[in-house]
Each structure stands twice: as structure tokens, then as C-alpha cells.
Design brief:
Length: 391
Amino acid sequence: MDTVSIFMAFYSWVKDPVFVFDIGKTIVEGATYDIFKKLGASFVSRIRPFFSSEDEAQKYFEQICVSTSINAKNPNQDIINLFDKFTANKLDERVKQQFGRELRQWFSDHSDEITKILKETKPINEIDLIVYNFIDVYRLHGIPKSNIINMIPSEFGLKIKDFRDNESIMNIITPELLEWTSSFFNIHIAWLYGTSEKLYRCKSYLGLQELFNLVLEIKYIKEKNVKAHFLKAAELDYNSDIYQRMALFLRYQIATVNDKPIYKYIPIGREWNWGWENSRYEIKHIIYFFEKIGVDNIGHNVNSNIISNLIFGAIFPEGIADNKENRTWNPEDYVDLPSESRYAKEIQETQKCRADFYQRGYKKNISLEIDRIISDEGYRKYKESLLFNFK
């Protein structure tokens, strides 16, 4: 199927009111990237009324730009999923339909221009894709091209002129620079090379102690202000055996650019079921542990598709983390006793769940891990104070 045929398949399907078009550069061998590179300002202007500010509309646009590609052979379900992913928690059904109408009108208004661009677009080659992905990783994290030089260690010997344009950047990209960028942002190296749709290579942490050790190391070596974002796709009820999906990602600051914090995200590559006791206890153990070591626990209500994309590594979590409207619950309410919080929930199993936490030896292992990562004698009292929280 050629580029124009693929586009017309999308365009004909836009008649459905529940619609979003993936403007990721990887679709249609780079054609959509060129479309929105040239028409992006018009697109943002069209969707602006659905957002609280132009910056928010621009951020929405940029997140879609780095979303995973749509399967050109069967785009319908992918388009629906992308619509849910980026709008389900911002727009009610009535507004969604209006949003769809505006998008259809935008495509109608620009159909001649888009068709012309598609006919002129050359398939993106592998090297160009690496350059685009490299730039996009920084832009996605709030770092414009002009500031990339300030993020990269001096050992790479780069200068500001190396970031003058994409061709200049192409000349300085090396496997070592891609590896460093991948590690710095926790981005899947294969995504940078354009060989994977996964933005993140998510680890499942089936053993909770490994997850606990990771967070301890981040908090006490890298950045003390760690936030844990818990996602749920349904109301939580421990008396119900209905499948209640939950997921988790971590976020902490790694830099500052133009007075703006730059964050690193660690999506956990598994889900939990609140309706199953063993799974529910696990997620409660995580919440309890985070609470006791001073990690901020934040609860979000999201669409089930967002959870699927998060654990697959196919979504950039910033939009979830920054969306205060979906922060509708407090995870710590589900692990606190009534004496600790007047909002405590599911208190009938709280003591049993805590007893299970200690029976699994987590407190002892936490003590050993702290000894490993904090060897300074001056931290002894701090360690004792921390462990005192685990009664």
C-alpha cells in the first residue's frame, strides 16, 4: 500500500466521531512527520479550545508526536486506542465528539496540502530516523535542541555548533552517545535506533525486594524527592473479585533546564489486580514501603488502555503525572490505620497486610540495603530513624 492510499484509508475513517490521528513520525515511513512539521501550528490552533492553555495543547501535540506508530494495514483500533490514551481523562463523551468533529474539519480544511505533502514525502531512512528520535527524546523531556549541549557530559567533546541543524547532529551521534542518552532518560535504546515501538523497556520486578532496593538507591544516592504514581482503571473494592487493574511508574528529577525540572520516568512492566488478595497485598506492600521511606504516593484514575500502554512501555508518562484532574484518590488511605488517618479504607485487612509485609522479611532486607548504599558513619542515626518507621 503506497503512502497516499494509506492516508486516504485514515481520511475515510475519520467519519467516525471517536477519532484521533497518530502524528508520530514513524508512521507511513515518515510522511506524517512531514505533515505535522509543516502544519503543526495549525493543528495546535485547532485543538487549543479543548485545553486550559496553549502550552498544554502544545504538550499534548508533542506527546502524540512520539507515540507508537499505527499499523497501516489495520489502523482503526490503533486510532481508537490513541484517542483513549491521550484524551480519555481530559474530555467527557460530549466533548470527545466535538473534539472529533474539529479534527475531521481540520483534515478537510487541509486535505489538498496534506495530499501534496504525502506525494512529495520521501521514505525516511534509518539514519534520519535515529536523528529524529535522538532530538525527540530531549524535546519530549522539555529540552529544546539549543539546550541539548548543556545536558551531555563534556567527555563527549561536543560544541554548540554541533547542534546547529539535523545534519550537524547526524555527524556527532555515536553508539556511545545513544547509550548515554538511553541510560540518562531510561529510554529503550532500540527505540532510539528506530527498531522498536517501545519507548521504555519496562522491568516487571516480580520480586518486590528488587523494586524496594531500586527506590532506596534512587532516594538516597540520586534524588530524595521521588514520586510514585499509582494508576487504577476502576473503583477499588477488596470485597469484589472483579478484575481491578492497577499499574505504577516512578518519577524523579534528574536536571534543571531554564528553571524547569527535568524528570526521569521508570514505568513498571506489570499490572496488579486489586480484586485478588495476593496481588492486592503486593501493591499495598509497595504503597506502605514507599510511605515509610518518604516517597510521595499519588493516585490517578485512568482508562484501561493507558495501563496497557504504560506496562508495554509505549507511552510517555508526563501527561499522566502532570494531570491534576485525574488525581482522585490517595493510595496511602488503603494502608493506614484509623489511628493514622481519618480517611483510612479497607481497615479490616490492614493489620493482616502489614503482618504479611514483615513476615516476608522486607524490614531486615531494607536494613541490609541501606547499609550497602549508605556506608557513611554519619548516617547511622538517620538509618535508625528510618527503620523506626517500620514498626
